[in-house]
UniProtKB/TrEMBL annotation:
Domain of life assignment: Bacteria
Gene Ontology terms: cellular component: cytoplasm
Protein name per Swiss-Prot or TrEMBL: GH3 auxin-responsive promoter
Ranges where the GH3 middle domain occurs: 297-362
Pfam families in the cross-refs: GH3, GH3_C, GH3_M
Coiled-coil regions listed: none
UniProt GO MF annotations: acid-amino acid ligase activity
Domain GH3 C-terminal: 389-493
């Protein structure tokens, strides 16, 4: 009998039963009040007169009118550079002990994002939100006694000027509570291995010693790890190694493009639970099984605003125009793409995280990630966001019975005009011209702007198949394998030339 599991499950269910239904709108107002009050004596708070904003009749409106939008470049040049240099009380009280390194999906130079103790507490509380939500997923008591494979970046944090730095998944894993270490795999020793391939090989060698019930990590790297374990032990699927595997907590990117290839590694379906954890904080998690949407965590030190994702408000580099209007949680509408803006307990203020989201249920404050502001393909007026590109790839998988977990594309100029040039990561090789026609026909039928573009400057679609492994090798050559690294879905022409040169060298 799963005694400990029954106790844990009982605590979770009791917690949920005793919790009153929160009001996300009221919670967000309270969070903004707390943020402004905590930071009013910082350099940022004095510059923008947080004390006066707190006296306003409408604090949310006064806040939006007083503080400009910040992307990473702007807030670092004006504020965080001083925090990085060790000066306290700049954008948040005190001085952070950690910096999250993030190269995101573009660029080779890592960003250094402050991670305060308040933010670590916020991430920990968000993790508890997720655990409490497990009462809705009908997991048996023995599930809560199984081990959890958390596949993130190395926990071997680097020290610099008295501060520790690494990717946010490594920082989080290095700060897990002592009582959780019993369940945490691959364990401290393996998690500290910097080299991705060496770390995954160590996981494979030890895999049979663990009773894994849940997985957590970015889908692309999770797939590669599972493949390595399956290959190392010469089995057909991962359930032959971990028979009690029942759940996968995905995050970082939309899971849908990976669904078909991921499920091919299983003996039977498992519960997929989406989360939204970025270098800047833990924003949302799925809390009920009947939807893949995630509930914004609205009471946890992060204040959200939303800018309609329209070309007139978004610059080519993904930043926002100065006149782009923001709205609050009580004003959002369902099925509208918004640029997500955050203000946090790490001193991010009206910060453009670079993601776009859409609400699937306003009352529940449930969202889905729809793409990236930089990955908006609009060179020739096609106005394709990542979620629309993902939909096209999913249609392609269904239509041609293939698995395409990774892809990238560019509106590339040829002698006769622009073509959307796709590289599809798949171990299946199909007729590229036929595949291009399937993509083109679907996009014309599903997106009116694309159809108009096809009648004007966009000449058509070109498709190239490359092995799925090519995308991991590209990430390794340009940034670093594993962790928070995500593939660019859309590239500019200069970056795309680098990609094509890389592919031709590897061919």
């Amino acid at each position: 009998m799963a005694i400990i599991g029954n106790i844990i499950k009982g605590v979770i269910e009791a917690k949920e039963a005793l919790s009153s239904e929160p009001n996300p709108i009221d919670e967000q107002k309270e969070v903004l009040n707390e943020l402004l009050d905590r930071a009013k004596d910082t350099q940022f708070g004095k510059r923008y007169d947080f004390a006066a904003i707190l006296e306003s009749d409408n604090i949310q409106k006064a806040f939006a009118e007083a503080i400009p939008y910040h992307d990473y470049k702007k807030i670092t040049e004006e504020w965080w550079s001083r925090t990085i240099d060790g000066e306290p009380d700049i954008a948040w009280p005190g001085s952070p002990d950690f910096f999250a390194l993030s190269s995101g999906t573009t660029g080779k130079k890592s960003k250094r994002i402050p991670v305060t103790e308040d933010m670590i507490d916020s991430i920990t509380r968000a993790g508890r939100h997720q655990v409490y939500a497990m009462s809705n997923f009908d997991m048996s008591a023995d599930f809560f006694e199984k081990e959890i494979m958390m596949l993130g970046s190395s926990t071997n944090l680097q020290e610099r000027d008295g501060k520790k730095e690494g990717e946010i998944s490594g920082i989080s894993a290095s700060n897990i509570p002592f009582w959780f270490k019993k369940y945490y795999k691959p364990g401290d020793q393996i998690a500290k291995i910097d080299d991705w391939d060496e770390r995954v090989l160590s996981i494979a060698k030890n895999a049979k010693n663990w009773d894994i019930g849940a997985l957590s990590g970015i889908p692309s790297w999770m797939e590669l790890m599972l493949k390595k374990v399956i290959e190392y032990h010469n089995v057909d699927n991962i359930h032959q190694i971990w028979p009690n595997l029942r759940a996968y907590t995905s995050g970082g990117v939309a899971f849908e493009p990976y669904e078909k290839s991921f499920n091919a590694l299983l003996d039977h379906p498992i519960q997929i639970i989406d989360t939204y954890l970025a270098s800047e904080g833990f924003f949302a998690c799925q809390n009920r099984p009947e939807t893949s949407s995630m509930k914004l965590i609205t009471d946890n030190g992060i204040y959200f605003e939303f800018v309609p994702f329209e070309p007139k408000y978004v610059n080519q580099d993904g930043s926002l125009t100065d006149d782009a209007p923001s709205i609050t949680l009580d004003e959002v509408e369902e099925d509208v793409d918004y640029v997500l803006i955050i203000s946090t307990v790490s001193g991010a203020w009206r910060y453009i995280i670079g993601d776009t989201i859409a609400f699937t249920d306003v009352e529940r404050a449930e969202i889905k990630i729809t793409g990236r502001t930089k990955f908006f393909l609009n060179t020739v007026g096609s106005q394709l966001s990542v979620n629309k590109l993902n939909d096209a790839v999913k249609h392609l998988e269904d239509e041609l019975d293939i698995k395409v977990p990774e892809y990238t594309l560019c509106a590339k100029r040829f002698d006769d005009g622009f073509y959307h040039t796709w590289y599809l990561g798949s171990d299946s090789k199909l007729d590229e011209e036929k595949t291009a026609n399937v993509l083109d026909d679907y996009l014309k039928s599903a997106n009116k702007n694309y159809k108009v573009a096809r009648s004007k400057a966009l000449e058509g679609v070109k498709v190239h198949f490359v092995p799925q492994e090519m995308f991991a090798e590209w990430s390794g050559a340009n940034k670093k394998k594993g962790g928070q690294v995500k593939m660019e879905r859309v590239m500019g022409e200069e970056r795309f030339k680098e990609w094509e040169d890389f592919v031709s060298q590897k061919a």
